[in-house]
Amino acid sequence: MRTSIATVCISGSLEEKMRAAAEVGFDGVEIFEQDLMTSPLSPEQVVDLARELGITLDLYQPFRDLEGVSEEVFAENLYRLEEKFRLMQRLDMDLILICSNVGTATDWNDDVAIDQLGRAADLGAKYGIRLAYEALAWGRYVNTYEHAWSLVEQADRPNLGVCLDSFHILSRRSDPSAFSTIPAEKIFFLQLADAPEMMMDLLSWSRHYRNFPGEGSFDLVNFMVELTRAGYTGPVSLEIFNDVFRQTDVVRTTRDALRSLVWLADATCAALPAAGIDPQSEANTMGLEALEPVAAPTGWDYAEIKAEETEEIATLLTQLGFTDRGMHRTKDVRLFASGDARIVLNELPLGVSGSVIAGLGFQLPDPKTSADRARHLQIPPAHRANRADEMVLRGVLAPDGTEVFFAPEQNGSAPGWLTEFGDPEQPVGEHELVTGLDHVNLAQPWQHFDEAILFYTAALGLGTQPPAEVPSPQGLVRSQVMRTEDGTIRMPLNMVPQVLDVAPTHNQGTERVPTGSHDQMRRSAYPQHLAFATDDIVSLARNAAAAGLRFLPVPDNYYEDLQARFRLDEEFMDTLRENHLLYDRDDEGEFLHFYTRTIGTVFFEVVERRTGYNGYGAPNAPVRMAAQYAIERY
Question: What angle do CA 169, 259, 372 make, to 5 degrees?
């Protein structure tokens, strides 16, 4: 698969963008007009740089408002276009993107547009230039690829074809199954973008909220299947307009971009057989390559919390019924366990403030294959020193710096590394009411939120649920749940509001957690938590209260509203009040839960799912946020 990326996708100068694309492994770039216009490099120097870097210059773009205009306006357009052709010759480029008219066509006639597109192509032929006509989703008269192809087909010039752009096609809910009606040699170029589902005008949606494949809601796998069926053989290119991507580190963002294409190629290969296409045959016209097969996690192995002082967290775990299993025999880490929930506490070096969920272990059918897949996705490895008699876990670094380790599935038995802690013969608690980890909620830096979605999709095979926005005292919090199909692994990801990312509160800091070559700032100005599962939350809450647990306070107004919504039995309502329990219900079942206070930036939640409840108590999240906010402020 030949890969390309539009320079408009990423931050920096034209030279920095080209160097980043080459460094991470892209085959070519699209030259965006403004990037060239603002560059000190001459066109000839751009060509020399591309040759030095070993990348191709695949597309010059965009040329706007060409067709469907008066003859007077068209004459001016041809003058502009010819100047671009001369420039492209200096760039040694032969393909230009022509966007459908959005502004100057006021009295539309298809025949006029066909004639003008043909005459523009004739002019291009004199310079050895091909024209790729693209229907913009908000085009005044041409806004579907079917209409664009109809005009191109009737213009009938060998150097005039179409550009298919996934955003413009899928944002209008157009059906890509008609790609095969276009001769393969007439599909001159492909541009890919994903995007979240949003209710807004197409232009604003396109200009600010496009994502890399796997980070939005579009069905790009089917899009690629239909392109393969149509016989497309050109580059697979990214054209992303996103305010965040144009502010973040150029190499990191470009690597995320290439990772998205590697993931998409793999996902498409998996879908091709169902479409009657053998991915190992010549019918795979783009040369899409499959990765090692991804196997979704079958369970949680452990969670690790780092803090400068862990005693307060250790006390909290003990109050929830966890057993202290002792220190690791060679590392300064301590294990607490209850049921299948295993929490490792790691003391940070002195001088580092805050606390963070620093590591997660996932049980997988084949950890080595998962680690190999992560390497091919260019995900940075996480390194840990091990003695010869200690279990080795392969790990990688998530975008926020969380260490993610691949552990073998246990099928009901205890992980082998447990023997490295304390006394292997130490008895566990007699009445362990916490049975395991229900879910892990991680706060994601705003600039890496979309990258995190792709990471957990591509590396662990987790799926996404529709995103949500949760109101908090600091504003709406964007939340995206990642999970396995059976719900064994549930991971809500919350975007840290940008203002909190740079302005921690008085008792919260921004800490630097050393993570080797992937060293980065961890944002600890926003809470994250571990949610423990139980089958008897009332008993657990009563035991925790007797052990001195300080619950997060729940206002009386909440319970009055609860009664108004659900008309609960008074005795049951009294039980909820007495034990600081929150409640939710849907058509499938009931959900009871409570929260602890936050220590640093980490807090715990205990949940009991009754029958088929599958959510997270989202209506109660504002209560938790407001209560925690009040504690921190006052």
Answer: 140
What phi and psi values does residue 110 have, to the nearest 5 degrees? Answer: -55, -40
Beta carbons of 160 and 182 less than 8 angstroms apart: no
Tell me the CB-side half-sphere exposure of residue 112, using CA atoms within 13 A: 16
Q: How many Cβ atoms sit within 10 Å of the Cβ of residue 42?
A: 12
* φ and ψ at residue 404, rounded to 5 degrees: -110, 120
How far is Cα 422 from Cα 490, in angstroms, rounded to an integer? 30
Burial of 304 from C-beta contacts in 10 A (0-12 / 13-18 / 19+): buried
**Whose structure tokens read 């913009």?**
136
The DSSP element (H or E) to which 356 belongs, if any, is strand 355-364
CA atoms of 598 and 631, how far apart (whole Å): 9
Query: Do 585 and 433 contact (CB within 8 A), yes or no?
Result: no
**Nearest to 404, CA basis, from 446, 452, 332:** 452
Cα separation, 303 vs 338, in Å, equals 13
Please give the model's pTM, rounded to 2 decimal places. Answer: 0.88
∠ CA 238-242-245, nearest 5°, is 85
Average pLDDT of each block of 10 consecutive residues along the chain (634 residues)? 96 96 98 96 98 98 96 97 98 98 92 98 98 96 97 98 97 96 98 88 84 93 98 96 84 95 97 96 96 92 94 96 93 94 87 81 94 94 84 92 93 87 69 95 90 95 85 73 95 76 36 36 67 98 96 93 94 96 96 94 95 91 84 68
The size of the chain, in residues, is 634
Handedness of CA 241, 243, 246, 248 (dihedral sign): negative
Q: How far apart are CA 420 and CA 410, in angstroms?
A: 17
3-state DSSP assignment of residue 625: helix
In sign, the C-alpha dihedral spanning 434, 439, 444, 446 is: negative
Q: Give whole-number Cα distances, 161 to 359, 412, 420, 435, in Å.
A: 50, 59, 64, 61
Helices 43-53 and 71-90 pack at an angle, to 10 degrees, of 50
User: C-alpha angle with apex 517: 515 to 518, nearest 5 degrees?
Assistant: 60
Instruction: Give the residue among 342, 403, 298, 315 at the shortest CA–CA distance from 530.
Output: 342
Other CB atoms within a 10 A radius of the CB of residue 76 amount to: 12
Alpha-carbon torsion (420, 423, 426, 432), positive or negative = negative
Are 151 and 157 contacting, i.e. CB atoms less than 8 angstroms apart? no
Which among 475, 483, 407, 472 is positioned nearest to 441, based on CA atoms? 483
d(CA 612, CA 589): 5
Q: How far is CA 583 from the centre of its chain?
A: 30
Strands (E), 52-151: 56-63, 95-99, 130-134
| Residues 340, 435 contacting (CB under 8 angstroms) | yes
CA 72 to centroid of chain Cα atoms: 48
Residues sharing a CB contact under 8 Å with residue 315, sequence separation 6 or more, in sequence order: none
Q: Strand ranges (DSSP E) for 516-601?
A: 520-522, 528-534, 582-585, 589-595
Handedness of CA 216, 217, 221, 224 (dihedral sign): negative
